[in-house]
Amino acid sequence: MVVRKGHEDEAFLQFFPKGFFILDETRVPMSEYYSKLEEHGAMFRVQAPGGNAARAIEQNSLDSGYLNSGDSYVIFTPGMGQCYVWNGEGANEPEINGANAAHANFVKVASKVETFKEGSESEAFWTALGGKGDYSQKKEGGMPASFEPRLFCVSNSSGYMFVKEVLNYA
Prior knowledge:
The protein is of the alpha/beta class. The protein is built from four helices and eight strands. It has helices at residues 10-13, 30-40, 93-105, 123-128, and strands at 20-22, 42-47, 55-58, 72-76, 82-87, 112-117, 151-155, 162-166.
């Protein structure tokens, strides 16, 4: 079974009732990944679509443009000395709980943790994200922005049912 990042279905999520991390990396030893964290920090978007198991998806960089009022975020600063847990106004309970658990369950834990609701951010939080910028202030619904439609051919013409993806369709 192939599961695309950010498109996990409910059947897959049931294997992780306490949530999980999705890293934005090619496969590297964890020691290399932690070296990158020490140097650059990391930002995770915590989502629980439909109020189910939360997942923390690594964002490409520390940038306020990735924030969305409908989710919670966990931000680790370079050096892992500080962790911020940001809960958007529209974040649901599993997302808030997932974000609070995410920083504690991450293998390399930050020494200081600050948690706040959208609108009560400290200046240090915005500095860690490169300054306060524009971000989506509404709960995203429906298809994620990165959704790519896919076409499948389903047939039982040979006596059994099979599904095959149609690539490069127009």
